[in-house]
């Protein structure tokens, strides 16, 4: 697997990126996250309530949504893990997919449902309040695609908003995802996962490799201080 280019690897670059993040967060994003925001993004109208990951503020949403939009998903069942505002579900539904969207944050589940209706896609998107696969594992449903913009930073989340960023002190999110996904993937099904060079990419992917998944690097996008990478995982 190709190594992800890491322009953010130097101490100076990490410092500058952190400084810019803090300025943007405290000067703009934090205030926006305290209220429900109406926005247009990738051709969709979105209402994003407090505590829900806002796709306009983070490049991973655009990168993965654009990749999903390029797929032909007609007749395919798609699972959006950690649906947030629902932007990935909307992109998948617009590409013809029948989408199940799950999130541990009730506000995110409600936002995805509302945004599906707002964009005329309610018939293609079903929302479920679930901690990853907890409320799906015994249904017998399988999916052709799973899509996920995961919480790839190390650390324990203490609020619903932090769950969109922090995957646990040992990145437990990825272990849970890998262990539960095999029984939910249809034959020849795949997982599309976006990661950043800010993350420990090998640690994020290790639980999948340990469970026999193949990992294929698809594409990357270099930004000023980080590189985003898209991976396809198959059981």
General description of the model:
This protein is of the alpha/beta class and 235 residues long. The protein has one domain: Vaccinia Virus protein VP39 (Rossmann fold), CATH 3.40.50. The chain is built from six helices and nine strands, in the order H-E-E-H-E-H-E-H-E-E-H-E-H-E-E. The relative contact order is 0.16.
CATH H-level homologous superfamily name: Vaccinia Virus protein VP39
The DSSP helix count reads 6
Structural class: alpha/beta
Radius of gyration: 17 Å
**Largest beta-sheet details:** 7 strands, mixed
Q: Order of strands across the biggest sheet?
A: 5-4-3-6-7-9-8
Gross morphology is globular
CATH architectural name: 3-Layer(aba) Sandwich
Q: pLDDT average, as an integer?
A: 89
Number of strands: 9
What's the CATH topology name? Rossmann fold
**Percent of sequence in beta strands:** 25-35%
| Count of distinct structural domains | 1
How far apart are the termini? 17 Å
Q: What is the oligomeric state here? A: single chain
As a percent range, the share of helical residues equals 25-40%
CATH class: Alpha Beta
Topology as H/E string? HEEHEHEHEEHEHEE
Which residues sit in consecutive blocks of at least 5 with pLDDT less than 50? Answer: 5-9
Keywords for this entry:
Rossmann fold; seven-stranded mixed sheet; two-stranded antiparallel sheet; alpha/beta; 235 residues; 6 helices; 31% helix; 9 strands
């Amino acid at each position: 697997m190709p190594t992800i280019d890491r322009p953010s690897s130097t101490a100076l670059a990490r410092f500058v990126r952190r400084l810019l993040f803090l300025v943007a967060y405290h000067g703009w994003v934090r205030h926006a996250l305290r209220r429900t925001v109406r926005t247009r993004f990738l051709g969709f109208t979105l209402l994003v309530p407090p505590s829900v990951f806002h796709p306009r503020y983070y490049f991973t949403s655009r990168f993965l949504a654009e990749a999903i939009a390029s797929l032909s998903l007609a007749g395919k069942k798609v699972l959006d893990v950690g649906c947030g505002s629902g932007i990935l579900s909307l992109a998948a539904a617009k590409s013809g997919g029948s989408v199940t969207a799950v999130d541990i944050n009730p506000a995110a589940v409600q936002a995805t449902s509302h945004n599906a209706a707002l964009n005329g896609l309610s018939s293609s998107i079903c929302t479920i309040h679930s901690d990853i696969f907890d409320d799906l594992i015994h249904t017998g449903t399988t999916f052709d695609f799973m899509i996920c913009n995961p919480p790839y930073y190390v650390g324990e989340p203490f609020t619903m908003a932090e769950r969109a960023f922090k995957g646990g002190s040992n990145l437990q999110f990825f272990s849970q995802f890998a262990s539960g996904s095999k029984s939910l993937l249809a034959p020849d099904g795949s997982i599309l996962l976006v990661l950043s060079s800010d993350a420990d990419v090998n640690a994020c992917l290790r639980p999948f490799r340990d469970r026999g998944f193949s990992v294929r690097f698809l594409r990357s996008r270099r930004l000023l201080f980080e590189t985003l990478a898209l991976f396809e995982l198959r059981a």
